[in-house]
Design goal:
heterodimer, A: 374 residues, mainly alpha, B: Arc Repressor Mutant, subunit A, 2 domains, 5 helices, rod-shaped
Chain lengths: 374, 135
Amino acid sequence: MDLLIQFLTNTGYYLLDFRNVIMLLVGSLFLYLAIAKEYEPLLLLPIGFGVLVGNIPFFKGFGLGIYEPNSVLHYLYFGVTTGVYPSIVFLGLGAMTDFSSLLAMPRLMLLGAAAQMGIYFTLLGALALGFLPKEAGSIAIIGGADGPTSIFLTAKLAPHLIGPIAIAAYSYMALIPIIQPPIMRLLTTQKERRIHMPDMRDVSRTEKLLFPAAGLILCCFLAPASIPLLGPFFFGNLMKESGVVDRLAQTARTAIIDTATIFLGFTVGASTQADVFLTPKSVGIFFLGAVAFSIATASGVLFGKIMNLFMKQKINPLLGAAGVSAVPGSAREVHQVGLQADPTNYLLMHAMACNSSGVIGSAICAGILWSFLV
Amino acid sequence: MYGLQAISAQNGWAMAVAGALIVMAGLTVLSLVIAQLHKVAAFLEKGVEKRSEKKQAVKTAPKEAAVTKPPSVDIDEAQARLKPLAAELGESFELTNLYELANSGELPHVHLSIRSLRESGVIVPAGDGRFVWRD
């Protein structure tokens, strides 16, 4: 009888508390959004299931939980806490990215830079709300709308916040179709949304080959702390553009990035153990994340309007919203909003240019914040 | 500590302004550089083109035809080899028959040997396309 009672007191049913129930509901919501609504399923599905796994109550001390040394989940989580998974994701991302549109119209890179202003506004906001500087820097990077970058910087500055920051970053990336369009419409006129962008010139193979080297040198000389992200990113891109290592490039943009994404998403989800995750700080992080993301979108759009004051060839300010590095979600939204204003206005390629510069910009910001706050 | 006081105490204003300026400057420089990249690419491509043109020119220049000297034929030796064979064909013979016979006997340089014998007058025409050995 004692044995049975002992067993029952060790079951999840007995150990369950309301915080676990909340988190299980959150995980289920993520799974619903991924499967039924197809909102960023590649991210939300592994995270959602990871949330379920991480919130099954268990008897502490068995070496089961993600925060318990020697547990299997703890070893898998190692790739997150050391920043290994984000670097691998960036390698695959580089092998996927086509910089042709950015090379054809380099001035669009400025919109990618402007959208990073959300990061610095949020840094101020987080400090004002009483977060410590390292925590504030980690929260601010959510404004870059780049999940791997957010995880990378948080792992370096405030590892105890990886769970809430990763969940916030990925949630807002998934919620792009809901967050960005109202801000874009609010800050632009119908006439501005109808601005057509000129056709892009053809970009030679030599230019595409030179870009990874030039980008790496210029960005990493400026912010060496961004090497772990931008190094693999530009390396992946060179593999793609060189055309001589197709097998490697193909593996980087499929098997490698997929493997890293699976373990990244799953372990980040599992790291949201209710007792660690459901704290007042997490609420603050979610609030600031939404602010960061909105300010980033607004900064890009407003900078596009400012550029139009000085340039002969007007640009569509909607493109500024794609300056956040949520690839390709924000580019897709810009394209959709442009099409709604004028069904003949195709902005996708131009928006992808801003998007890819946003990836570079947010990685530089991560490097800058790391070197400021370390 | 909260609010503006917290920002000032943590050096927040300086970090935000400096960070924003650095990323803006960095990406502006990068955009200026990639705006000029097509010129560098054109320069490099021109150089590569010139070099490949030169290589092509060297490759396509007509090569001097290799002059191979025919091996010298010792008339006496050729005569000593071929005369016994020609005897099988009779007193007069056709050169083609001699050639086929010598070739089947795997003698070296058969064609050259017959030509040399012909040119040196060791074999002389006997009319009707037949030849005889000159005594």
